[in-house]
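Board work, copied verbatim: TonB system biopolymer transport component Chromosome segregation ATPase
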Amino acid sequence: MKCINPLLLAGVLATATGVHANSLNPVVEKSAAINDSALKTQGKIDSISDSMQSKLQQFKTLNKEIDGLMVYNSQLDKQIQNQLAEMADINASMDQVSVIERQITPLMLKMITGLEQFVALDVPFLLEERKQRVSKLREMMERADVTSSEKFRRVLEAYQVEVEYGRTIEAYPALINVAGQEREVDFLRIGRLELMYVTKDGKTAGIWEKETKQFKELPDTNISQINKALRIARKQLAPDMLTLPINAAK
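↓ predict structure ↓
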């Protein structure tokens, strides 16, 4: 058996090791490059994944907004349809108002004429005041700055005043002709049933007669009761039983 020189063996091993190391270096470098490339690729993948998640979230948010807008638009569409229907109703009503306005003016004029005739035929209490009310209504009808609705309201108001006269009692002063002389008297109105007076000196009393359309003098025995009724009408006395002359219905 031959002996190998240790020095020679060491040299051979060193040479082999050097040769092997030199052949592995490119492999190691290539592997490192691959790892670097893999890391960069993973970074890009992570970045793309994050971007996709963000865009997905945006997509979901936009979908919710779109759903909300669709509901809102549907509600607006219903409101618009209702408003269009209301506009159509208003236009139709305006056309009807024009027709009604043409019809209501003659009606109001007839009502004023009727009121004027009623006052002339009625018991003559507050006669000047009531005549002036009718006169003002006629003047109002000629004014262009007063709407038809306001005119109609005032005509109805005048009728309402006349209706209230029939439900109340009233005392008021006035001047009338008594026995050929103009005298100041206190009138007592009991609804539309009776109209009586007492002179300021308390010596003469009278009552309106519907048949003769004039005042008739009353006996002195009625004066105290009429004065009491005047005080009740002025709220100076509590309501109480009274004995007053009454025109009997025929």
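The helical segments are 6-121, 127-141, 148-165, 223-233.
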